[in-house]
Amino acid sequence: MLRYSRMCAVVAGLWLGGLEAGETGAFQNENVIGDLIRVGRGLFSEGEREMALGRREAAMGRFEAALGKFQETLKLDSENKIANQYVARIEAILARYKSAIDALRKLQKLRVPLSNEDMQTTLRLVTAGVLQLKDLKERGDLLLHLRETLLGLPVEEERQIDAHLMGIYAKLGEQHLHDIVKERFFAIKPVPAEVHFLAAKTYLLYDVNHAQAASYLEQAADSQRAVQIRPSGNPERDALNARIRDAGATVAEDFLAYAYHAAKILDAPKNRFVAAEQNPKTTFADVTEAAGLKDVASPRVAVGDFDGDGFDDLCAGGRVFKNLDGKRFKEVTKELGVESKGVIAALWLDFDNDGRLDLACAAFPKVRLWRNRGDGTFADATADAGLDYAFPGPPECLAACDYDGDGRLDLFIGCFEHPDPKLASIGQPAFLFRNTGRGRFEDATQASGISAGGNYCTRGAAWGDFNNDGRPDLYVANYRLQPNQLWVNRGGRFTDDAAALGVRGTPGTGQYAVAFGHSVAAAWGDLDNDGDLDLGVTNVASTRFLEFSDPLALYINGGKKDNWHFQDALWTSGIRFQEMAAEMGFCDVDNDGDLDVLLTAMFKERPTALYQNVGSNKFQPVTWRSGLRVFNAWGQAWFDKDNDGDMDVAVGSAEGLRLFENKMGESSWLRVQLAGKRSNALGIGARVSVAAGALTQIRETTCGSGTSSQSSAVAHFGLGSYKGTAEITVRWPDGREQRLPASPINKLVKIEEQ
Q1: CA triplet 595, 284, 708: central angle to 5 degrees?
Q2: Residues 562, 575: contact at Cβ < 8 Å?
Q3: This prediction's pTM
Q4: How far, in whole angstroms, is CA 335 from its chain's centroid?
Q5: Are 695 and 669 in contact (CB under 8 A)?
Q6: pLDDT of 46-85, one tens digit each?
Q7: CA 349 to CA 361: how far, in whole Å?
Q8: Using an 8 Å Cβ cutoff, are 292 and 334 in contact?
């Protein structure tokens, strides 16, 4: 719902000029009326300007003065349409909603249709304002007054109002009134899917009738899936229409998942998701509160062992939490001297190769670099490191890697959309900072070729060597229907080969030929254990715009035989469409030797989904039975918080970070921790291969992916029931290889670069 300042922004620039003075009714003195209207219009415009400048009190004063002039006009000519329009608009701005509704009805009597642009603008202001009222009885009374007073409301608006009335009356315990409205709401038979969906959404909004909402959503999802696609003679069009239909059903199922959760319908057969899932190989327990992380609100989360005690610590929203013993965390932000105000993303990195993790914290307009002193405190090294930039857009995306193989971590920073809402779709430059090795970074954006990509609204990035040439490449996820980029490392210079390799996104057709997706995040991982990296990309993709807006993508790497070209396997993978996807993360959660998928989704009713890898690029949902159930999530960070050989996960959310402990039973595993000498201290960008029996797996040590999420730099390998030794091969960032031929398993192996 719109807040007051946003509502008033709607009126900015509107002059209510659709009606000319010649259309006014009879009047006694044309000159007096004309003068009053001119003065009133001037005061109204001044109010708009004051509101645009954030001076609310002054703006309200101008609007009150303007209202007085138009009311004087109506004393002389009660049918003056211009004055009546302004009165309706100003009453809405001043939150006198009943008066505004009555003024709109008066205009209808003066034969001004409700479809008139000015009438529609005022009606939107009234509706948005009423829906913000905290007093539910007042809200309900005004909605009912609007519903019964104005003639010719579109059917959809009547339904919206009735849905709110049902929710309000249910919340207030007015069952009789609820039932009267409900009978009217469901009068159309058979009930369309969108009507069931609207009723359920509104019940969830008002936190009432959860079980009934679930029933409605089951019917909505089933009705949507049952829609028959009429053949058009164009197979591609028919396939798209089928995907749009099914996507609509999955949106209803998202809300259904939330309704089940709210109604505590958690068991089969009543919960259709539980009924459809297979038993997972592992389960998770929510240990957020027990770990001391309750009410830590942060959409993004980063893990790293900043104090070198062997336990990965957390950074959430710039706040640092020390892992005490694998079970409990303690906030130490102030003790460390780190400032967390305004931080939107963070990244642990050892930029000076002293073996201690430093911390980069992104806020707008600056990124601050905190150097780990090694004595339990951090110092602000931003200026000394050459990063004292005023970035042109929010620096949402941080990812580090040694792109030039000189043994030092370099830093990519991507900026999101322009801070001025009017210019939101205008992109900003991305930056690549090269580490000079003297405690400083230099801007290498132009020298590296990254600047040639142009300006985009960047939200996510991930480094990974997809073509096995020993050099880290960079995938950049861009928002606002902009194309994504795959920067192929040519030895310190980059070229964008995303289009040639099939990962730029899918352009629309016709007028949407340059529209791609609202991409949010990216992640690399070898999903099929064939020795090369595959790629997951998330997109916010409204079902209404799927014709030209990209959905999720699961790009499978064709390898050398296919010239490193990728194919999108999403639609055959078993991973369902997610309209509000945030991050896709890869981790072997069940220690069976292949990477599973966790997909987070933003907004209250959108569920996170965990998919178990069953081979051949196929995945099965295990969200409900595994216990890894979260709504309104964003970032994710995988780490073995308690060093017991299975991977736990911290899931970021603006409503509060959630920590899930993996309850994996007996299985085999191996963890590999690198210590660089010629390479950077943590071996970021190195590739670790583990051969155990017939299975060989690869992992690359990373420093940030998704949208500035960060999983552990310790490489984790599940080995299933294997009982022998493992052969470990490390390809360091400079290309040199190092082998450990017969390593014991079920332990952490620390490898120092030779």
Answers
A1: 55
A2: no
A3: 0.91
A4: 32
A5: no
A6: 999 999 899 999 999 999 999 999 999 999 999 999 999 9
A7: 11
A8: no
